[in-house]
Amino acid sequence: MTDELVGRWYKDKKVLITGGAGFIGSHLAEVLVRNGAHVRIVDDLSAGSLQNILDYRSLVEFQQSDLREEGVAAKCLDGIEVVFHLAANASVPHSVNNPREDFSRNVYGTFNLLEAARDCEVQSIVVASSGAVYGQPDRFPIVETDMIRPISPYGASKAAVEATCQAFNASYGVPITIARIFNTYGPRQPRFVMYDFYRKLRQNPARLDILGDGRQIRDYCFVADTVEALIQLGRLDFSVCEVFNVSSGQSYSVVDVARAMVDIMGLGDVEFCFTGESWAGDAQRWEVSIEKLTSVTGYQPSCDLYTGLRCFVEWFDAHPERISTG
Fold it and tell me: What pTM, to 2 d.p., does this model score?
């Protein structure tokens, strides 16, 4: 979707982005602000950062709040036409270590938002779910009608979020679309495999420790393409709660990513050392169909893995202060 098309639909729209100071949310906010939307960001800053929205902070309405708190959701939705609900814990390992907090943030926060939306004139709510709801599928590519069988507390909390969305849509007519987002990467990303590889290679360019055996398969999607998909979904009008896979439709192994990263960073021989074990709840293979998203919205991912990784590396090279030393 070109800026012209985004501007045509979102110009002067009043848009709420929960989790808008986070990785994906901040990129989404930037595109919408650039195209004339009136953006309200709500974020408790538990994972997000004001640094992410620094360049356009004066152009958005920012509220540091937790959707689990009484009355916050209703206040956030006041006057809003389109909602992108991205606020959540988005870490499988964190959910394994803190399942109660994971469910509280993801499920109860979403419930409060949807309960408040019953009394609002919201045109569209796009709720971010995750490929983690599929668990470890036994057939590929993964399509939206496949059974969901989460293998982590995070995946289970997102499955509960989806069930809540379906119920509020069916019972109250709340206009909800579910986006099952897979592995998104890009500038400002604060964790996960690309960030982990980059940080380790900057610390020791001769050796890279890789979780598991490196053969894990993922469908990686550059953040600009994920944002494109969300924006497309936000302007559609469904009478029922539709579910869409959001990714690139191209799969790579973890070793593929490591080799590309080493090449882009201009490193010589790097020793890959495999831990042999991954974390609990880590799926070993995801190959994703985005046919439904493409056929309904016209979405076409525009960034291949190598190009996206180069952008990722160049951004972090220019912002070394954003790299953790831990």
Answer: 0.96
